[in-house]
User: Which sequence fits this backbone?
């Protein structure tokens, strides 16, 4: 059993990962109720910027709302989340990429021209992406069930209708950072750069913000979106055994954290299909000459990939390294699934899982 444990949990990182899990539970005691310990990716909300700056009040209120809907509308609520699983997964993916942009912690004070260029090339397109790809699909959940609770129709829930609907609920703080005039100005070219300020226009309104206010507007919306995805993540972790599915992007982030080592990093995953075989391609960067380290990490990555994202016929690792030639490994997904579902499985059962 110790050999199997060493594959599933790298012994060199066990103490460090245990400390991280303890920090997570200390910060989010709700996770004491979690039936497993695979929530290392939540640690970024404790130590990493910009996730660290998530809105605490939005997280608390939205998490309570999610638990309330599970208790009062479980069947409809679960079906809605399942039907919109792809949109939620894309929201998690877009937010992960937005959080990873390299300018969040840029502290040098630019001159006026550099500031305008930064706003035009970075803030504006990212604000639009944040509103359309992250904020809208998550807030639509709240608006949808608010309409149901009020006995109103659920059609045509565009962004404007979503925001107006949420204003009628106890979750109005969720939409406070959103500025519809700014969004429309960016989306439809209604922007005029003035001296030290920017004028945003839509069909019926215009609003002027100074150059730093638009950055603050973006940051406030980002903090809200991080709070919303954090609440969803912890809710899904706690209620996964009741039929709720974690977004695949969350599971892939968890895979990255679980297998991360000084010599090994999962940088991305892509579903694909070859003939009649569904496979998940896992892209890895290796930084070692030690073949034994690579072997251990290959097995750990393949086994955990099937655990976190089951259902594929094959799990294909594409390994790149600046120290050696490219490599690959292909795992039989059906065999991995069979072993995982066997409560009495031992290390030797994994013989033959690599094709």
Assistant:
């Amino acid at each position: 059993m110790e050999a199997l444990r060493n594959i599933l949990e790298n012994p060199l990182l066990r103490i460090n990962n245990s400390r991280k899990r303890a920090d997570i539970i200390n910060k989010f005691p709700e996770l004491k109720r979690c039936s497993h310990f695979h929530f290392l990716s939540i640690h970024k909300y404790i130590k990493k910027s910009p996730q660290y700056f998530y809105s605490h009040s939005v997280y608390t209120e939205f998490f309570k709302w999610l638990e309330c809907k599970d208790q009062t509308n479980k069947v409809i609520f679960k079906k809605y989340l399942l039907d919109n699983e792809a949109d939620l997964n894309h929201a998690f993916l877009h937010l992960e990429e937005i959080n990873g942009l390299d300018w969040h912690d840029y502290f040098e004070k630019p001159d006026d021209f550099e500031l305008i260029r930064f706003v035009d090339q970075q803030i504006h397109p990212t604000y639009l992406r944040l509103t359309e790809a992250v904020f809208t699909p998550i807030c639509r959940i709240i608006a949808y069930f608010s309409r149901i609770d009020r006995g109103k129709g659920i059609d045509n829930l565009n962004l404007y209708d979503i925001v107006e609907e949420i204003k009628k609920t106890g979750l109005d703080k969720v939409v406070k950072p959103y500025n519809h005039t700014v969004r429309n100005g960016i989306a439809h070219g209604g922007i005029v750069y003035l001296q030290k300020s920017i004028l945003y226009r839509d069909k019926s309104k215009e609003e002027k913000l100074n150059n730093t206010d638009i950055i603050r507007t973006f940051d406030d919306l980002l903090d809200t979106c991080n709070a919303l995805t954090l609440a969803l993540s912890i809710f899904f972790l706690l209620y996964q055994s009741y039929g709720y599915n974690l977004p695949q992007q969350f599971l892939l982030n968890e895979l990255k954290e679980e297998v991360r080592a000084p010599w090994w990093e999962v940088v991305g995953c892509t579903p694909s299909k070859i003939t009649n075989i569904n496979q998940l391609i896992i892209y890895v960067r290796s930084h070692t000459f030690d073949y034994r380290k690579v072997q251990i990490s290959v097995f750990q990555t393949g086994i955990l990939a099937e655990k976190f994202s089951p259902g594929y016929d094959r799990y294909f690792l594409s390994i790149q390294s600046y120290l050696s030639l490219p490599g690959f490994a292909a795992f039989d997904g059906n065999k991995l699934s069979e072993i995982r579902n066997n409560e009495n499985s031992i290390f030797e059962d994994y013989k033959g899982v690599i094709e």
User: Anything to note?
Assistant: The first strand starts at residue 191 and ends at 194. Residues 9 and 199 are 54 Å apart (CA to CA). The two ends are 24 Å apart (CA to CA).
